[in-house]
Automatic annotation (TrEMBL):
Protein name in the entry: Fimbrial assembly family protein
Transmembrane stretches, start-end: 218-238
Provenance organism: Candidatus Nitrosacidococcus tergens
Phylogenetic classification of the source organism: Bacteria, Pseudomonadati, Pseudomonadota, Gammaproteobacteria, Chromatiales
Keywords: Membrane, Transmembrane, Transmembrane helix
Entry keyword annotation includes Membrane: yes
Matching PANTHER family: DNA UTILIZATION PROTEIN HOFN (PTHR40278)
Amino acid sequence: MSFKLKWSNQAGQNSFRGFLTSSPGLNRFFAWWWEGLKHCIPQSLQKSLWREKIKIILLPQGEGLRIIRNQKGQKEELGFYDGIQHWDKALLGDSYQLIFRLFSTQTLTKSIELPLAAEENLRQVLAFEMERHTPFNANQVYYDYTIINRHTSREKKIVVGLALVPREILTQWLTKLEKWDLQPERVDVIGTQYEGKVNLLPLEFRSSKTLTLQSKTIFALGGLSFLLIVAALLLPLWQERSVVIKLMAETAAAHLQANRIITIRDQADEAVENSEFLATQKEQAPIIIDLLYELTHLFPDSIWIHQFTINKDQIDIQGEAQEASALITLLENTPYFEQVQFRSPVTTNQVTNRDRFHITARLLLPKATS
């Protein structure tokens, strides 16, 4: 096989290609975007820009390759090559894509069900789950995946088709292909649902072809489309700029006026609340004169009061009486007190021969009227 294939090894293109390859979601977006762009271009121009490549299928056989040309679904066997005999490059055609296709016996394929949220970092999740679902870890294989199904209702699951090949097997073949100046753009599995849907080719073996006039035209059209979209979005905003500025000024003035109204309303609410609080306190506070009048007539004339304290709804009385225990009953029988009790034990004054007492009680405050 005497032909040479030219491949671009520019660092910038490799980095860009690696970025796209590691971002399947981005790939799907660009595929959708290019498809939409094609519908905006006349058919005659489409034919010159998007010429269909001839697929050259490389199938491993023994120590060599079976080479098959696939053009618009028509397959033609070109022969066997093992790096020794001469091969006519003209048989491949002008524009072709090399695909190295492994057999299912050389690979492992499996369907895996994962949470739908795993799709955002699916490649990393598959690497982490590799040992659970296969006999290998992620460092022992080259792998890729395709999404088979999504269950977005209750299960929130995603069914992923995983395809992998041991690194040793694929590296041997890729080294041999590189020696023969054959560098495939894709590696997949023949005769399975993964054929044409996965790419097991490692990133370090991938490279982009030198940009042609066709690809430059596509990028130019893409850039022009982007600029037109940006212009379509920004032009109405620029035309309405004065209106927006005027509305912003009016909104700021209205906001300031609203803040003033809110401040006045809050002050009024606070004044009403304070007045209601004072009225409530007045209604709940016992009438001291009535209370003293009641106690004056309630207690016998022989009682001595040393200290009389009222603190909110609590009353505290200290003094001496002929029989202190009788005072508890007297206080409980009035409508003013409840929870009447001695705060400390009753003692006897040896000089006056009277009981020293210290009584506490809870005042029954009148209920506030609404």
